Structures are given as structure tokens and as C-alpha cells.
Amino acid sequence: MFGKIMDFRLCEDSLVIVTDDTPIYVEAVNSNCFRIYEQKAYNSFAVTDYTKGKLNAKKVDGGVSITSSFGKVIIRDYLMMEFYDNNDNLLLKSNDSNFKRTYETNCLAQFEGHSVLEEEKMKVRLLFDIKENELFYGLGDKTGWLNKRGYEYQNYNSDIPEPHVDSFRSLYKSIPFYLSLCDELTYGVFFDNTFRTNFDFGKFNNILTIESIKGEIDFYFIYGNNLKEVVSNYTALTGRYPLPQRWSLGSHQSRWGYACKEHIDEVVKGYEENDIPLGAVHLDIDYMENYKVFTYSEKKYPKLKEYIKSLNEKGVKVVTIIDPGVKVEEGYFMYDEAIKNGYAATKNGETYINAVWPGDSIYPNYLKEDTRLWWGDKTKILTDLGVSGIWNDMNEPASFKGPLPDDVEFFDGDNYYYHDEIHNVYGHLMSKATYDGLKKNTGLRPFVITRACYAGSQKYSTMWTGDNHSMWGHVQMAIPQQCNMGLSGLPFIGTDIGGFGGDSTAELMARWIEVGCFSPLLRNHSSTGTKRQEPWCFNDEVTKIYRKHVNLRYELIPYYYDLFHEHESNGLPIIRPAILEFQSDKKLTNQNDQFMVGEYLLVSPVVLPGQEQKLVYLPDSEYGWYDYFNGEKVSSGYSIRSAKLNEVPLFVRGGSIIPTAKVTRNLEEDPQELILKCFPGEGNYTHYVDDYKTFNYQNGEYNKYLFSLKDDILEVKTLHNGYDKTYNKLTVVYKNKTHEFNFKDGKYRLV
Ligand code: GLC
């Protein structure tokens, strides 16, 4: 495909390298990445911010050397590439062998029921050398551990109900982006190809393989002086999650099986009686009429509009599930409209039918703008009922009568595309349609959850990790999985707390909420047919533990909201591995049982049964570490901390100023009081306030405050004053003493 280099020329900041086969294009993008690609027939689904910069190209021995302000790439015959930073450090180099991953099909092993990898015919293949100390992160929601070196994965959105284990190559999401850390050197690669792609991080040897079954090379080499900058630059390219409504940071309760209004009544009452805040209930497929999307069963949920209103008045929002499959049924408006207007995917020109929950169903062709607009407008049916968010499921797309064939057609109005290319962006496009529809109908910040997604879906949706199981392995996996999702540009994420499939034990539930209360999306969800797992379904101890940790989360909502505000400008995740903050600490390179919330809090939960103590590791931090709960100084390095069933070890860096709030039941109420938890040392912190729901902040309607801590004095300074409501009371907790002030600019002595 790529031959010998014959010539090259620069034209309007694009370099064309003419080979004796396919030409290669090179561009410098956003002042921090090189894009190397073949001619593409359409625009990227993921990339939204693309500013071309200046390039210089000159002939070097056996190739072309291309420089831009941020680095250099040398491209030689047959697309052999070498990437350097501005200090001439080699970051990534093509491997010049003919290495092919060969698999042996062992029939006997297969006969016994083992899965055997068969060779795949991959069209596009790029090979690179892996350096001795190189580590890999990212790639979205894949199973396994934080560092991906030595493992191999496939991007093909997959709904697999069996417990997700390390040997799974694919899960629901396709994020063809990884980050590399080698000693102090970092970079990222985004391979923008929506077909089935493989990433092999040296499973067989020290060769990194990136390959795809079809399509073209569209390769972004992303620079960054550290992992944070790489994440930031990747999300600048593919988009960031826009500020959420505050209520969505509350606690959500869901279950497949809330079959009627009375079941929801029970849930709401249970939360009230047990004094646990509840921000939202989710209606799974049970609320629909025969699983027909955009309908609801009047019999099971009579007077739904009035009912939702009554829930909203208590501060409980309602989120409804919407699957893509539209039931084949003449007379059903969704089906009739889809057929009449050609909104469904086709095969050989005929409407394509497979089956999902409603039985035989058609698959909306979200590639076509008309379909997306139609779908987005339908969300009004739900928002008119008072629904506050939409949960998009089954959008890999899942199917019950065998997988969708590769040649199912998606017509975009001009050209036909096929399922093998659209599969990995189906959930992405559905989320986009839903996001745009909700925004148009309500004017509020949309709340969408999706199971399947592609790179860049973070612009439209939050995500959960799909059908996990009530097993210890899955509360363990929740940590590296969410950390890698965060590094892959997906900030608003969560797992089904307690586990979706299988039956949770009391101990597992207690430990899961101690992890899950820190997930940006805090949702307890379980499958029909499993043991009930609302917080009070175990015993008094678990109810208390659940209450304690949901309360902790509500206390920290101002901190979470600030993190989301920062994410919008820097793209950094909310929960993150400590390696992102302490990049040179080798002990953190594959740390799988701790994580950080922002740059100040470090959580070290217990994720094994029977433990009452936890081996904690705290990296060196300028002003040391403190126990969040009792303010005691904790030494850096390894230590063993008490972690009884009701305790999650939570640490905070010295010099931190953590904004917190009193726990309120209704997150729509404007907080009057800000409680700053300050820890000895020096530090600055920027706090952000707005109306928590509209887009008015984009017109300057927000307040921003700078808090500084030094020599036992806290200073408050208003940086931006654009929103009329603010706090009237400031409470400061410092060295175990509480101080109360009026909230205004000034210096406050704390000792
Ligand atoms: C899928 C979803 C799960 C949902 C179920 C029924 O399995 O992943 O969350 O409860 O479908 O809608």
C-alpha cells in the first residue's frame, strides 16, 4: 500500500508524500499533534477541533523529515515513521520486521470449549518498537489492569453478558487511543478508524501492533510533556464533556424490574425512611408499552406526568431508558414514521430486521442527519412528561438473532456505508441525536447515559461500564477500568454499584458503595431475577454504610462540580490514577487498588472480602498527607490503615482547600453555605458557582473565587462575578476547629 517515496510537496500547510503506491498526507494539528493519513472520504466522527499549523519538510537520507513547533517526524519508504520531541528524544519508531501475529487454531482445545484465536485478515497494519520501560494506558473500558503492556485488545463494541474477565478482547466501547509513559517521556496515539481495530501492546514480543480490518490509516501522534498534557491535547481534539446539571451528581437508583409505579414508590420511600439522599430513579425497559421506545404503559405507570412531577418536587429526577431497536408493528408511530421516511438501516435495499427486547425490530440509521433529528425530536415525548435524562442502551448495537451482518447499509443521504464501518460509532451517533434533541427541547444541559461509544462520545454523554456482575473481581476492576476510561477522555463514568448480574452479598455491597460513591456517575443498578440490592435490602449495617458514603458524596459535590468545570477547559478526568499526578513515582505505574479524585483526594478502598486493614501507598507530596476524616497527619510511603467494613481510607494532600456542602436531599436548592475543609500547608484553589443547570454560564453568568492558604490564613478573592446568587455563609474547618464567617472577600486567620 505505501511504497517508496518518490517526491513530496507542501500545499496550504498539508504535506503530500508521493510514493510509488498510495500517497501519504501529513498535517500539524492544534499545535500539538501530527496527523498522518490517507485521503479520507468523509469527516471524522470523533474530531471536532482541528486547526492546521505550519510544517517544514526536507529530504533526509532515505526519507522526509517534517518539523513543526512541537516536534519532528521522519517518514521513510513504506511508511516507516520515527517521532521525536523538540529535545530530539525518540518517542516512537516503526518496527521494520514483517511480524505477523499468527494464531494456532487448536481444534482439540476448541472441542473442549476453550476459545481459540484465529488469524484475522487485517488490511491495515502498523508496527512499532516497544521500549524497555514503556507502559501503556487508555483504550477506554477494556478489562484487566491499569497498565496495558503485554495485553492485546480489539475495538468492536460488544455486549457480552458473561462476567467480564481479563481475557476479553472487547467490551462495549471503542476508544482507539492510548497513552505511553517511558521513564519521563510521554505521548499519545489516536488511530481514527471506526472498523474493527486491534491494539497489541507487546503480547508476543516487544512489538506494538495497531491494525484494522478495513479502512484507512488516520494516525494522530499526540505530544505532551506529561500524561496530563497528552490527555488534555487528545480531548482538545475529540471534545470534552460539557458541564453537567448538578442533580446528576447525586445518587441514582435503578433496577431492571421496577415493573410499576408502586415499585418506584417503594424505592423513594425506602430512601426517605432510611435517610439516604436520592437524586434520581431510573426506569428500565419495564415502563414501556411492550418495549416500544417513546411509549409508556399507562397501566403500569398511570398518570405518569403527575407522578414525575410529584417525584421532582421531592428532588427526585426521573431518567428513562431508550434502546435503538424500534418494534416492527404497523400502526406504531415510530415504526410507521421510520418506514415512511427511510430512517432505518437496510440490507440489499430492504429494511433490515433483527430482534431485541420488543422482538423483531428495525435499527434507526443514525448516520443520516434526518434520522438523528427525528430521533432527537422524539425525546420531547419524554421531557414533556417531566423526564430529566435519557439512558441509551443496547446501542453496540446489540441483537438477539445473531450479529448484524457487515453489509447492513447506512445511507447518509449521499453515500452508502456498511455496518462494519458504522458499528463502532452507532452508540456515538445515537448519543449525539439524544443530546441534541434534549438540548433543543429543554434548553438545559442534557443528561444522557450510553453503554456503547466511540472516541469523542464524551461530548454528548455520560457512560456506565455495562453489565458487570456482583463479584469481587468486578469491584476490583472498577478501579483500573474507570481510571483508563478517564485517561481516554471519558470523565462522567460509573459502574453498576452492587453489580448488575448475580447476587450481591452484604459485604460486597458495603465495599462497592465505598468505591462507587466516588464514581462521577453514582448508580446502584441490578438485573431482574437477581437478589434485590437497594441499600436497605441487606442489613442495618449495610444501610448505615450506604448512607454514610452517599452523604460523603453529597458533601463533596461542590468539589466534583469544580472538577467538571475544570474538565471543560483542560479535559482531565474526575477520577484518575495517581500516576497522572505523580508521574515519576514508579510505584504508581500499575497501581490498581487506589485512585484519586482530582488532584487532592486519594482513595484507597478495600476490594477484597474479609479485610479490615488496607496497605496504603501515599506518594511524596510537598506538604504531606492528611486523613480526610480526622485531620491527622499520615506519613508518605507504605502504611497499614484501619479499613473496617464501614471505613474507606481517604487522604488529602497538605495545603488542600476542599469545598464541601451540607448534605441536602434536593440538589435543586441553592446552597447558602460553603464549607471549606483546609489542610495544613500552602495552596490555592479556584471554586466555581453558577445556576447548575442552564448554558447561561457560557455567557459569563457564573462566579469564580480564588481561595489561598498560607501561614494559617485563608484568603478569599472574587475572580469573576457574573451570577447574582452566591453563598452567605463561609465555614472553614482547619486543624480540627470550625470557624464561621460571612462569605465575602478578605483574609481570615484560622489559628
Ligand atoms: C441491558 C443493560 C442493563 C439493562 C437491561 C434491560 O442488559 O445493560 O443495564 O437493565 O439491558 O434493559
How would you summarize the topology of this molecule?
Elements: E1 5-11, E2 14-19, E3 24-29, E4 33-37, E5 52-53, E6 56-60, E7 63-68, E8 71-76, E9 80-84, E10 90-93, H1 107-111, E11 124-129, E12 134-138, E13 152-155, E14 173-174, E15 177-182, E16 185-191, E17 197-201, E18 207-212, E19 218-222, H2 227-238, E20 251-253, H3 261-273, E21 280-283, H4 304-313, E22 317-322, E23 326-327, H5 333-341, E24 346-347, E25 350-351, E26 353-356, E27 359-362, H6 369-384, E28 389-392, E29 409-411, E30 416-418, H7 419-422, H8 426-442, E31 448-450, E32 453-454, E33 462-464, H9 472-487, E34 493-494, E35 496-497, H10 506-516, E36 522-524, H11 540-555, H12 557-570, E37 575-576, E38 595-597, E39 601-603, E40 613-618, E41 625-627, E42 633-634, E43 637-642, E44 650-653, E45 657-660, E46 673-678, E47 683-689, E48 703-710, E49 713-721, E50 729-734, E51 737-742, E52 746-749
Helix pairs in contact: 6-8, 9-10, 10-11
Alpha-D-glucopyranose is lined by residues 256, 284-285, 321, 393, 451, 466-467, 500, 525.
**Alpha-carbon distance between the two ends:** 71 Å
Q: Which shape, going by the Cα principal axes?
A: globular
Helix/strand/pairing category: alpha+beta
Mean pLDDT: 96
Helix content: 10-25%
Strand content: 25-35%
Radius of gyration: 26 Å
Bound molecules: alpha-D-glucopyranose
Largest sheet: 9 strands, antiparallel
Number of helices: 12
Total strands: the figure is 52
* Poorly predicted runs of 5 or more residues: none
Q: Oligomer, anyone?
A: single chain
